Structure formats: C-alpha cells, structure tokens
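Supplementary Methods. Inverse-folding protocol.

Structures were first reduced to a discrete structure-token string of length 513. This string, shown here, constituted the complete conditioning input.
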C-alpha cells in the first residue's frame, strides 16, 4: 500500500476512534488547528508523562517550571524573534498557493534520496546475500549520477540559506524545475520573508494598550526564570530546567495533519553548562534523547539524525532526530547548542545580571545552554504512525490495530463480560470498580465479544479481560494480549499485578537508566 494511502487512513482513524478532531468542525473548521478527543488526550498525556518523568526523575539535576504564555514584549526583541523569526515563502501564480521555499527544495532532495534507495533495494533483491551495499553505492553509475546531482543541489541550498539569499533560493527552485503540487506549473513569484508571531494587545484602552505576542516557543520562559530556579533550588551547574507548554506560530504553510500547526505544544529542556563544555553536553543529550525515542520499540531503523544546513543565529551546533513518517523522515525533536546567546541578550536588554558564580572555578560567567525540544503533536503522530497496522488473520478476516507501547496506551485494560446476563455483567462491573484506581480501564458489554476485541485493538488497548461462566465457578478470567491475540486464564486477584507489570510507565523508564 502506498505510504500516502496509509497516512490518509491514519488521519481517518484518528477521527473515527476519538483521537483527533478538526477544531470548530461544526463551523467548517479552522485551518491547521485540531482538538484532541477522548483517546487522543489520554495518549498525549501519557507521552508527556513519559517525557517529564524521564527528565525530572532520572536526572537529579533537572527540575521543571510552567511559565506564562504572555511575556514582556522586549523578551522577543532580545531573543531575535521580532526581527528574525521568519520563513522564506513563495507563491505559485497559477494555483495561488503559498509554499515555504526551503521545504520545496528539501522535498526535492528527498525525492533524489528515494531514487537512490530504490536503486539499492532493487540491486539487493537481485544479488541476494552476496550484495555489497557500500560498494554498489560507490560504483553504480545511476547511483553516482543521482548522488552527484543531490550534492550539487544541497551545496547551493545550504549556501543560500546561510547567506539568507532569497534570490538564490528562488533560482534553485527554477533550476531544479520544481513544480507546484496543485497546478503542476513552474510559474513562481519571488521569495520573501514572513514573520510567524501572533500579536495582540494587552490593556483596557486603545491609548494604554501594549502590544504583546503569543509565545512562538517555550524556551524564553525558561531563560528569564533561570536565576529564580537556580537560587531557590540551590542548583549547581550543570543543571536543566524542563517545561511543557503551548506555543503559537502563524504558519502560512501548515499541513500534514497535526505535523505542522498554528497552535501546538512543546516539551523543552534547557541545560545550563559551563562555557567550553557545551559541545560535550550536546553529544551527551543527542545520545540520551535518541535512546528515549528508541525505547518505545518502533525500530532503530526508523530514526536518524539530520544536522542543520543553516544554524540559527544563537547556535554553534544543531541536529534533529527524525522519524520515518508515512510521508518520509521528518523532525520530531531538535537538539541545539544555543551558546550563551539567550542569557547574554536578556542581560543586555533587561539591565539585570544573569551570571552564575561557579564555586569550583571561583568566578562568575553567563552559562551556555544545550536545548532539547520536542513537538508533542509530532511525537503523538510518530507514535500513531509507528503503531498503525492492518493485519490479515486466519480465515481471511482483517483487523486494524494500534500497537501502541503498553506504558503509554490510552486505555490499559478493557473489561468485557462475555454476555450481559447470568450475573456476568455484575461480576465484570465489580472487577472494573476495583481496578479503575490502578490504571485506565474501559468497560464494554455491547456487541459480540469479537467486535469488542476489534474496537479495543483499534484504540490500542494492550489487554482485554473477559468474564465468562467459568469466572463464577473459580474466580478466573481470560486475559487477551492485543499484539499476539493469545489468551490465558488468571485469577481475579492476579489481574492487577499482571497488568501493572506490563503497563506501568516505570518499566519504560528503566530502559533508559
């Protein structure tokens, strides 16, 4: 099945089973804004808990805060967002559609990569066990021709980005004969910059109103509170501050479902270090963060690092952790070495000293910062993409199952009476009332047991407990595993321990320690 078709099915599945809804749908929706449904909010909260606990419980020198969305407008002047928080946009004159120029070129490069990979895959099938991929990539004329083409485009692309040369970006789009996906034409406008911040006014009168911004990132709330946390928590460098919160960007080219939205949520940790040690910590957090993603079990081959072609004005190193989405490898997390730019800027603009006195070095300095930043919504999408399966069963039946890691599944256990009569429903309700204090349980007595299993598979419930007539005789129930569909009998008194062993988030965290 084409990856594009799989993505459409995931989007449809999200709405059908209560994961994600278009926002304001009864009013025909609002572009690039979504609401999380009853299953979605549980999964989202579990992802956030996994991240939060991995930061604050596993690292004794990382603590959390929750800063305000509205902040003093000078903060955004100091951070560079007022002057430099822009996207390079280009319009197609025929379709009237607007695109990010850099994304068009990145997608063009990805198509060349796909051509090379398909060439290698065909050769691997043809030569079997004797296939030497490294040698093939270095000697095959078609692969070498495509690789040379890619390298030339990438070199021009990186230079145009680093020079902020919008004319060269447009010329590259023209030279590569990149067409509009809608009109199929190459009738492009010039490339121009567009600021992404939402502005509003704070104050009761138009004369006294102050222009403020909806924060485009959560990091600045950490930076302006860094001394508050350091002093009140008696923190010693190195230490980190973690935060989960909403951010807002006026994305003109918002697309691919919840991958790029105008209102989104971030999980960020800023790690404050001594100058000169930042690149070592940058490498440390790269490894730690990749390990966090891979612990979910979606396959190491589905993750890769992508170093930035253009460094942000505040960074001296930057990379992304990318996950293989149905529409290609895409960023889910960024790790950046931000130098001392942010704290030095806030010190300059506020007139307040933001230095740390290091007792070991017996001197004061403005700390350097290493940042890890995940988009919660992108992480949510990567979990769904990695979990979505369509399986053909014995006898020709099919099922759609979300193989979400049990520790973060929205519902951990479904309690199902085989039938509603003969006292089975009452016994099932009794079990549900006992277990609902331990983990997220769902009670379901409607339809045949087979249909109920399929419903639980579709929302990713890892275990189902079935109460049947034997339960009334010996206090045993059937526990069904979502992934293997195997069933075994356990006593009612064993259910809590059995399910907790397999679904408690601490077992996921132990993989990281």
């Amino acid at each position: 099945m084409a990856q594009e078709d799989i993505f459409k099915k995931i989007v449809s599945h999200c709405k059908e089973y209560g994961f994600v809804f278009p926002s304001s749908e009864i009013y025909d929706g609002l572009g690039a804004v979504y609401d999380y449904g009853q299953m979605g909010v549980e999964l989202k909260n579990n992802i956030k808990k996994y991240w939060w606990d991995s930061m604050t419980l596993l690292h004794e020198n990382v603590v959390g805060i929750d800063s305000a969305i509205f902040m003093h407008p000078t903060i955004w002047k100091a951070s560079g967002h007022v002057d430099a928080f822009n996207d390079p946009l280009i319009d197609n004159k025929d379709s009237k559609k607007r695109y990010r120029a850099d994304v068009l070129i990145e997608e063009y490069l990805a198509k060349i990569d796909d051509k090379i990979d398909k060439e290698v895959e065909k050769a691997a099938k043809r030569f079997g066990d004797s296939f030497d991929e490294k040698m093939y990539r270095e000697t095959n004329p078609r692969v070498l021709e495509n690789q040379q083409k890619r390298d030339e485009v990438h070199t021009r692309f990186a230079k145009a980005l680093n020079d902020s040369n919008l004319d060269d970006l447009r010329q590259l789009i023209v030279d590569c004969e990149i067409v509009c996906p809608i009109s199929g034409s190459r009738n492009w406008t010039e490339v121009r910059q567009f600021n992404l911040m939402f502005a509003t006014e704070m104050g009761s009168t138009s004369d006294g109103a102050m222009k403020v911004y909806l924060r485009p990132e959560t990091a600045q709330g950490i930076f302006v509170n860094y001394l508050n946390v350091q002093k009140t928590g008696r923190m010693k460098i190195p230490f980190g501050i973690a935060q989960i919160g909403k951010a807002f960007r006026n994305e003109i080219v918002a697309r691919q479902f919840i991958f790029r939205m105008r209102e989104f949520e971030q999980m960020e940790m800023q790690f404050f270090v001594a100058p000169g040690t930042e690149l070592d910590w940058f490498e440390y957090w790269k490894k730690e963060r990749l390990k966090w993603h891979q612990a979910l079990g979606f396959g190491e081959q589905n993750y890769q690092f992508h170093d930035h072609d253009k460094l942000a004005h505040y960074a001296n190193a930057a990379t992304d952790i990318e996950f293989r989405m149905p529409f290609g490898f895409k960023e889910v997390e960024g790790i950046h070495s931000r130098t001392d730019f942010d704290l030095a800027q806030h010190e300059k603009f506020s007139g307040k000293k933001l230095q740390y006195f290091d007792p070991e070095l017996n001197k004061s300095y403005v700390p350097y910062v290493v940042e890890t930043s995940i988009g919660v919504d992108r992480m949510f999408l990567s979990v769904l993409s990695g979990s979505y399966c369509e399986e053909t069963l014995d006898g020709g039946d099919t099922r759609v199952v979300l193989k979400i890691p049990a520790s973060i599944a929205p519902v951990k256990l479904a309690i199902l009476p085989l039938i509603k009569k003969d006292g089975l429903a009452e016994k099932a309700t009794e079990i549900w009332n006992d277990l609902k204090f331990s983990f997220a349980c769902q009670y379901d007595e409607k339809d045949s047991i087979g249909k109920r299993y399929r419903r639980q598979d579709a929302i990713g419930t890892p275990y189902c407990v079935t109460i049947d007539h034997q339960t009334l005789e010996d206090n045993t129930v059937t526990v069904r595993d979502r992934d293997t569909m195997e069933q075994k009998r356990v006593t009612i008194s064993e259910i809590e321990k059995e399910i907790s062993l397999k679904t408690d988030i601490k077992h996921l965290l132990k993989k990281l320690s």
